[in-house]
Amino acid sequence: MAAGRIVVIEDEADILEVIRYNLAREGYKVITSRDGEEGLAVVRTEAPDLLLLDLMLPGLDGIEICRRLKEDPVTKPIPIVMVTAKGEESDIVLGLGVGADDYVTKPFSPKELLARVKAVLRRGPLREERGEGERIVREGIVVDAARHELLVDGKPVTVTATEFRLLHFLASHPGRVFTRDQLLTRVIGESAVVVDRNIDVHVLAVRKKLGDHRELIETIRGVGYRFRDAES
Asked: By the 8 A CB rule, do 54 and 85 touch?
């Protein structure tokens, strides 16, 4: 049984073949392209379950492809995993900022690539609205939106409204990387007069209150933060 359809846009033939082979072996139907403009057209025609997108492409770069897909209501729900060269932190931040769901850095192992693809497909689309009754339970912590309550090892822990929103948002999307700007917008609000490093202060405060479970919130150096995936 097919695991889903994935479009891969990658201009390096050897890397493209490695990706295609490993995805196909897992049961995915793989459609490939080595050109930005052509790849964009393929995504719009195929409406895949996921797009694996290189950033450096001829014709149209990956950032612009991502931006155009996320601006179109028809293609906006398609999850995107970026493939970047190691050290391109600014491109990663930019890509996540225009709507990419995750990234893999070159060189990567097939195992790592498949893990990221499966994680993104498992998570599904980003939930913009938090369910008021949602109760998240993970490794000794309970984040209860209905009660606006945090329990750590069964004991209630006092948190500020901003700290609770930050923790709840991250825990609602395990494994997904968010830039500081994204967290500022979704947790504090677009109208707030703040700088991106304010998020670091809030994350530090939340980690302290999580105690022995502080490592559930992972720092992605040069990019932002994520809540550890349940299967990682």
From this structure: no
Give the C-alpha distances (Å, rounded to integers) separating 215 from 138, 173, 226.
12, 16, 10
Model confidence, pTM: 0.73
How do residues 150-180 score in pLDDT, each as one tens digit?
A: 999 999 999 888 899 899 999 988 888 898 8
- Regarding beta strands 135-138 and 141-144, do their DSSP bridges make them parallel or antiparallel, or are they unpaired? antiparallel
